[in-house]
Design a protein that fits this description.
This protein has about 450 residues and is an alpha/beta fold. It is about 40% helix and about 15% strand. The protein has two domains: about 160 residues, Aspartate Aminotransferase, domain 1 (Alpha-Beta Complex), CATH 3.90.1150; about 230 residues, Aspartate Aminotransferase, domain 2. The radius of gyration is 21 Å and the shape is globular. The N terminus is likely disordered. The structure holds pyridoxal-5'-phosphate (PLP).
């Protein structure tokens, strides 16, 4: 045991261990309490109640140890309770917990902004503002783009997910469960067709031309403040645009004075095998939004980008009570230390290679797997009726239920709910990863 004396983290036994049904009696009892006190609108994917987590496992109140292929939705990329995160958070929480950076500042905030300037794509002068959640970062990126351009319109894409606040609901594509009944939504948001090679068969250049045509004809580039896009879509189904799509879109934005905003909230911080997914094709966004993987589980988000754009906003125009909270900043500095120290972009590529080979074998065996896509430790399979693009969400639900019952945490996503997304913590061992995919294979066998 380290001097930290924490019970989770990388020192937890790295094993899948089932001692009860999933969920077990302890979790079922707690589910009754949840039912009594927590709003029903807050759902749970796999209702085991957690007492510890780390490396590649999650341990529940009944003593079951589950393999984690979800990372709390791409958040604990450095692993749960990672050593550097725990150490820095403990030091910070004992020193001071909050002052509000807008009242009396502190180093941690500036340190995180310096790291973001260095790590995000491009060598130009960059600045950052910090917030609490991904949605808040996206909203602020739009605010900055509007002030910097003097234009109103915002372009987003089919299958996009940008959050659950009013503006970001308008930007998110999928109605259920994110938007249904929650309108009216913010105006001046326009949706363009996404490059989705499995479904449209278009080259990146052709898909970009199609999207640009919609924007030119239906919005007009002179009215457009920004284009906001996930370089690999998250909730929308891990859709990877065809090569050339993102560079063409970014070039069109630059030529027309439109701010190109990469929403890297899910794809960023080593997940795809690069520091940011935009790096893969050398795309340099004007602004980048970050959250999720940035701080090892503490709530932190950022907008980072061209200094001239970031500084277009009047003093006092950006901020918030908790944005860049000192404990969250300490966690981010710890997480970045883990990413650099363990070369987690390289580890994401190794994990991606294992997942790709396991999933390729599965795809050869099961015709229901219509598409295999993704990069690094952000990989997905889309389930469709064999030989078609007709979604098979029922099979996806059955496979997920089997995995959950066998102690493997898997997540589905996609507009039709028929996509499995695999995004394990980058601290997972190869042995656990293989065991998890053994279970995924069993799940396909037992649900055919
Ligand atoms: C999760 C997510 C958001 C919203 O982040 P929250 O922290 O949940 O508000 C925005 N964009 C993308 C791409 C995301 O994956």
């Amino acid at each position: 045991m380290t001097s930290l004396e924490h019970t989770g983290g990388p020192s937890l036994p790295q094993e899948r261990r089932l001692v009860t049904a999933i969920p077990g009696p302890g979790s079922l009892e707690r589910l009754d309490r949840k039912k009594a006190f927590v709003a029903d609108g807050v759902g749970t994917t796999l209702p085991v109640f957690v007492v510890a987590a780390g490396g590649g496992v999650i341990v529940d109140v009944d003593g079951n140890s589950l393999i984690d292929l979800g990372s709390g939705i791409a958040v604990v990329s450095v692993g749960n309770a990672a050593d550097s995160v725990v150490r820095r958070v403990q030091e910070q929480v004992a020193a001071f917990t909050h002052t509000c950076f807008m009242v009396t500042p502190y180093d941690g905030y500036v340190d995180v902004c310096e790291q973001l300037a260095e790590l995000t794509p491009g060598e130009h002068a960059k600045k950052t503002a910090l917030f609490n959640s991904g949605a808040e970062a996206v909203e602020n990126a739009v605010k900055i783009a509007r002030v910097a351009t003097g234009r109103d319109a915002v372009a987003v894409f089919d299958h996009a997910y940008h959050g659950r606040t009013n503006l970001t609901m308008a930007m998110t594509a999928k109605n259920m469960p994110y938007k249904n009944g929650f309108g009216p939504f913010a105006g001046e948001v326009y949706r363009a067709p996404m490059s989705y090679p499995f479904r449209d068969g278009l080259s990146g250049a052709d898909a970009a031309a199609r999207a640009i045509d919609v924007l030119e004809k239906q919005v007009g580039s002179d009215n457009l403040a920004c284009v906001v896009i996930e370089p690999i879509q998250g909730e929308g189904g891990f859709v990877v645009p065809a090569p050339g799509f993102l560079p063409a879109l970014a070039a069109w934005c630059t030529a027309n004075g439109v701010i190109f905003i990469a929403d890297e909230i899910q794809s960023g911080f080593c997940r795809t095998g690069d520091w940011f997914a935009s790096d893969d094709e050398g795309v340099v966004p004007d602004l980048v939004t970050t959250a999720k993987g940035i701080a090892g589980g503490l709530p932190l988000a950022g907008v980072t980008g061209r200094a001239d754009l970031m500084d277009a906003v009047h003093v006092g125009g950006l901020g918030g009570t908790y944005g860049g909270n000192p404990i969250a900043c300490a966690a981010a500095l710890g997480a970045i230390e883990e990413m650099r120290g363990h070369d987690l972009p390289a580890r994401a590529r190794e994990i991606g290679a294992v997942m790709h080979s396991r999933l390729t074998a599965l795809q050869e065996e099961y015709a229901v797997i219509g598409d295999l896509r993704g990069r690094g430790a952000m990989m997905a399979i889309e389930l469709c009726e064999p030989g078609t693009t007709t979604p098979d969400a029922a099979r996806a639900a059955a496979v997920a239920a089997y995995c959950h019952s066998q102690g493997v945490v898997v997540l589905t996503c996609g507009t039709w709910g028929n996509v499995f997304r695999f995004l394990p913590p980058l601290s997972i061992s190869d042995a656990l990863l293989h065991e998890a995919f053994d279970v995924v294979a069993e799940a396909f066998a037992s649900t055919s």
